[in-house]
Amino acid sequence: MKRRGRGIGCMWYPIGFTVTANPSSAVVKVNEDGTATVLTGTVETGQGSLTVLGQIAAETLGIAADDVHVVSADTDVTPMDMGAIASRTTYVTGNAIRLAAENAMAILFEVAGPMLQVKPSQLEARDRRIQVKGFPQRSVMIGEVANRAQVTLGQPPIGSASWNPPTVAMDPETGQGKPFNTYVYATQIAEVEVDDETGEVEIIRIVAAHDCGSPINPTLVEGQVEGGIAQGIGFALQEEILFDGKGLQINSNLTNYIMPTTLDLPEIVVDIVNSYDPTGPFGAKGVGEPSLVPTAAAILNAVHDAVGVRITSLPATSEKILTAIKAKRAADQKQISA
Amino acid sequence: MADEPKVLERERPVVDEALLRANTDQNLPAVARRESVPDTLVPQARQQTGAVGQRVTRTDARQHGLGQTRYIDDLSLPRMLYARIKRAGIASARIKRIDTSAAEAMPGVMAVLVGSEIPVNSFGPMLQDQPVLADPIVRHAGDGVAAVAAVTEQIANEALEKIVVEYEPLPAVFDPVEAMRDDAHKVHAPASNIYISKVIRKGDVAKGFAKSDHVFEGRFSTQMVEHAPIEPHAAIADWDANGRLTVWATNGRITLARSDLARTLMLPLNRIRAIGTIVGGSFGGKNEISQEPVLALLSKKTGRPVKGVFTRTEEFIATTTRHPFVMEYKTGVTKDGRILARSVQLTLDGGAYCSWTETALGKACILAAGPYRIDNIHCEARAIYTNKTMAGAFRGFGAPQVCFAYESQMDDIAKALGIDPLEIRLRNVFAEGSPSPTGQVLHSVVVKESLLQAAARFGWEARS
Hints:
The structure holds two protein chains of two kinds. By secondary structure, chain A is an alpha+beta fold.
């Protein structure tokens, strides 16, 4: 008989390296036409991070995402960056890019001030223009300012900056300290159907509510969470590297190491929790790793809810679940007959 | 009205006919045919200012969609050679002799490399305990023992078969609990197999348990998992006539990859150019160098660029994995479900080399008590060497393992006390300003909101 169950997995997760310095650096160049080029030492590993970083630069410069080109991952060209690890790219590299763009912008404000006859501090950048704060009608195109800065005044609007999340070392005896500058939080709830005659688990749906600070690009956040859940399902139910008695792997191929495919995925609902972290770029934190952290917990709690067995070792294969169901039945029988 | 077409005319880009044809063949909209897109009053997300928060299309989406993204295996340099690495196939041994003469004599084989030829034959992000090629101790079956560069991949594969390695088998240990015993085989003899440990202590757990109405104990364990990115580890090394090395690599951290290359090859940093190509999935598995020094030295020997692409089997046996955990949880609660004390013991199977274990261990230890306000915490974690594939960075760094344990136990507690699983979490979770297990005051805490939002979307209703 198929039995339904539901389970919650709730988690917290840090952004950036544990205590260790993990700076990112960036260079932002505003071109003579008001478009911009960003240099970053991070690497696109499939998450869409370069798109997000371009959006952060665009927002700071008051231009559109399409106006920004991001150059990445070449040690001869791009400045130092600790890389695509520890869910740190949006938060740490994003802050470096925001600061670098602000530095480039400061040059443009210096140039635009006399053009608009106000102090540079009274200016803001938006809609591809530099304008007097609150007076969009008193404005000049960023391209015009950038061109003047470079061609007339000989001050190319280039900004560079580094950022490193502040931490405090942990006491070796007690572990007390501030290992990270910020954390994210998330809850996933799974609904499953367990066949109590075979131990097979079908995941019906997973609802995920993730905090990533303010999302820079909601579509990419949802993509990360959906991908993380897929990976979490494999961790919960299927994947395991097996060894023989001599320490040789026996399933080192994708035929015998079973991973979930798109056909195994349930309905996934992703919600982004309303959140703003003042230490992140435009309130953003991160989402890369946390996306799979609570998945296995939610699924295994749902299995427990469905058939009343607690699987304590992953992966929860059908065999393990069926064995546990049989053991529970036998124990229940004993109790009745006793 | 009369002026409008002129404006449009000016904005219309010059259409590249060849590009248009190529796109017609693929039955996809042309890149340059902006004129075919109807003018809309609302600009697309990419064109709008106020970029943050917008659902901007990925800058690489079109190339991915058209299959035009160039991964390393799509790249080729003139006179490029192909490298393959011979894997030990034995978990614990001393190499007595390597005979590469038959391989070197093969037509098409341009160079062979063994561990003794590597200037500094060790690497690792925390402990430099991993050899680039094993010499002379093999510590897990996926260790590389020799490498070949040949004009084709087929010849390189055949040459590996001709390399004869004579091993003296050594004792081995595969179970982390066994490996902790004094008489266990030492993977990195004479050092202990327990190579990193960490403690977090807050309040007084003994007092906390004494005050608790109920104490729950549980033992949980997790397995070894592979990242399995679609694109395997791949790199091209080109050691040019000026003695300058360029490496294209599937590496998520080029700044540190360059440092690691400089160390293993004894080169100044300015003589190395590390280029991170578009990576076809990392999930933490591509956070350190692997075959790059081997390819670099083969390129130096031959004066030609050398490419290496791992097979799927190598992805499993010769790259890092997720740490298997054994977790002992003991939790004391009041009868209304408030957690008063939690003690946790974590044992991580690190495999043969340290890699990113210190980070996984540290994060697991810090996060082990869960997102809950608990005054009395004691968490101890240790990492153990075994003669298995090394564990390293993997999306979550130990967090999915401890989350499985603390959330499983949370539901066990809820059930035993007759409290709804959502409700027991709401009673315990962090709030803005809560102290963490390391005594850090937490800010921008929205864990309660995430619980309530997920519950609302799911349609969670408490059962009586």
